[in-house]
Amino acid sequence: MINQRYSMKRNWRTLFILGWIIMGLLIIPTFMTAANYSVRLQKGKINQKITIYDKDIWDITVNDTYGPEEFFGENANITGANGKYIVRSWYDDEVNTSALFLNLLIPREKIIAFFGPPYNQSYIDEKYNSTYKIGFILISKWNFISGAFPENASFPNDALYLLKNPEDFKTLLDDYNSFVDEVNNDLFFPITLSNYSIKEFLFRFFSIQMGILGPIDTYLTEMIDNLNSDNVSSIGNTLRLEEKDLDNYTIQISFGKMGLPSTITYLDEDGKVFYKITTYDTEWTVWLTLSIVGAAIIALVVYAFYKNWKRKKEFQTSLKRVQS
Q1: Over the stretch 56-93, which tens digit does the pLDDT of each residue have?
Q2: Average model confidence (pLDDT) for the chain?
Q3: Domain coordinates of the chain in residue numbers?
Q4: Which whole number is the average pLDDT over 132-152?
Q5: SS3 sequence of the chain
Q6: What is the pTM of this model?
C-alpha cells in the first residue's frame, strides 16, 4: 500500500514537471525579440524545379510581353526545368546603406552611374546613415535547365542576404524611395529609378536574393507589422503578397527550415495555381527515406516480439488447461 501511494505521488510530480515544460515551450516564443532570431543554414545542395507554368493565365494576369524568366532567370518559363544552388559558407557582417542599395536595389544595368559623383557610395552613406546587421551567404548557382547540369555554375560566386532585424526592412525601403525621389528630381542626372511598393520590394528580395532568420513565423509577423501594409500578410511560414487595387493575382512565398524560400506560388483571383517553383533539399530527402526505412524495421521487430509473446501466452494458457 505504501509503495502504491509513493508511486502515485511520483507520477503526479512527473506530470506536473512535464506540464510546466510544455507551457514554457508554448509561451517563450511569444516574447521573442530581434535579438533572439537565429541563422539556421546548412551547407549543401538545394534543388529547384518549375512544377507548374500555365502561360495563358500568366499572360492574362501578370504580363503578356515577358514570362517568369524575367524574374527567375533563364529557362524559368519551362515546366519541369531544374535549377540548383550550393550553400558554401556564410558569415555575419555590418554594412552601411550604400552596400544594400548598390547590391540589392539599384538595377544592375543602371548601377555604373552611381560609382562616381554626385550619388556615389560616400554620398549615400552620409545622407542615409543607417547600419544593418546582416548574414552574408556565399552560394554557387546554376540557372534552370531542361537537361543535365553543366559542371560549372552559371554564377559561381553569387550571394544571398539575411537582415538580422526584421524592422530594418521598413527603414531600408523608406530610405531607398527617398533616394529615388532625389535622383529623379535632379534634371542634370541622366538616370531615373523606380520607386518600390512594399509588395515589389519584398518580392525582389525574397524571390532570388534573401532569406530570413528563425523562428520564421515570428520574424515574418514582426516584419509585416512594421511595414504596415494591407497588401502583405503571413500565415505560419508563408508570406502572401498582393496589390489589392492593381493586380488580379497573388504571390505566396513559403520558407523552409533554413529560412530560405521553399516554394514560390502564383495564384489567380480564383485561387488557381498557375506558376510554381518548388525547392527541395536532397539531404532532407535522404534523411526522410532513412527515417521511413528505420521506422519500418522497428515496426517489424516490435511485431515479431509481439507474435513471440502471444505464442508464449497461448502456450501457457493451454498448459494450465491440461494441468487442470
Answers
A1: 999 999 999 999 999 999 999 999 999 999 999 999 99
A2: 84
A3: 36-286
A4: 94
A5: CHHHHHHHHHHHHHHHHHHHHHHHHHHHHHHCCHHHCECCCCCEEEEEEEEEECHHHHHHHCCCCCCCHHHHCCCCCCCCCEEEEEEEEEEEEEEEHHHHHHHHHCCHHHHHHHCCCCCCHHHHHHHCCCEEEEEEEEEEEEEEECCCCCCCCCEEEEEEEEECCCCHHHHHHHHHHHHHHHHHCCCCCCCCCCCCCHHHHHHHHHHHHEECCECHHHHHHHHHHHHCCCCEEEECCEEEECCCCCCCEEEEEEECCCCCEEEEEEEECCCCEEEEEEEEEHHHHHHHHHHHHHHHHHHHHHHHHHHHHHHHHHHHHHHHHHHC
A6: 0.74
